[in-house]
Amino acid sequence: MQTPLRTAPDSTAHTAPQPADGEHCDTVLRETDLKWLLTGLGWWIDANRLHSDANYARTVVHTAMQSGSDIVRQSAVLLHMQLQAMAVSQAAAQSPETPPQQG
Q1: Residue 80 CA: distances (Å) to CA of 4, 38, 73, 74, 102
Q2: Which of 27, 41, 60, 83 is a good FRET partner for 91, with 20 to 30 A between their CA atoms?
Q3: What is the pLDDT of residue 68?
Q4: Domain count of the chain?
Q5: Structural domain harbouring 28
Q6: Over the chain, what HEC string results?
Q7: Distance between CA 36 and CA 44 in Å, rounded?
Q8: What is the C-alpha to C-alpha distance for residues 33 and 20, in angstroms, rounded to an integer?
Q9: Each residue of 27-82: pLDDT tens digit?
């Protein structure tokens, strides 16, 4: 007779995975919102290019900011602000720390 396999309870087995970077998740949500809003207006957005081509991303966001739709403009502004905040965070993380200067 075989004994059923038993394992110790895993406290993490039923918890949702936590994102490593909340800022990145917020940006993905804002991109998705804007993409669907623009799709509703008949504009198709290339998500891969949006992530790999800074000029394309800038053009998409700036074009959306000039939309006749308030919600599209608001979504574009929020994404623009989120992307700027991420760029500042990334630049700060990559720059070497310099000691404060005495003056």
Answers
A1: 55, 15, 10, 10, 36
A2: 60
A3: 94
A4: 1
A5: 22-92
A6: CCCCCCCCCCCCCCCCCCCCCHHHHHHHHHHHHHHHHHHHCCCCCCHHHHHHCHHHHHHHHHHHHCCCCHHHHHHHHHHHHHHHHHHHHHHHHHCCCCCCCCC
A7: 9
A8: 21
A9: 888 999 999 999 999 999 898 888 888 899 899 999 999 999 999 999 999 999 98
What number of other Cβ atoms are within 10 A of residue 60's Cβ? 22
pLDDT for 8: 41
The whole-angstrom separation of Cα 72 and Cα 75 is 5
Per-residue tokens: 100 = 């404060």
> How buried is residue 70: exposed, middle or buried, by Cβ count under 10 Å (0-12/13-18/19+)?
exposed
Q: How far apart are the C-alpha atoms of 41 and 44, rounded to whole Å?
A: 9
Q: Amino acid identity of 88?
A: V
Whether 17 is in a domain gets the answer no
Place of tokens 């995975």: 17
pTM beyond cutoff 0.70: no
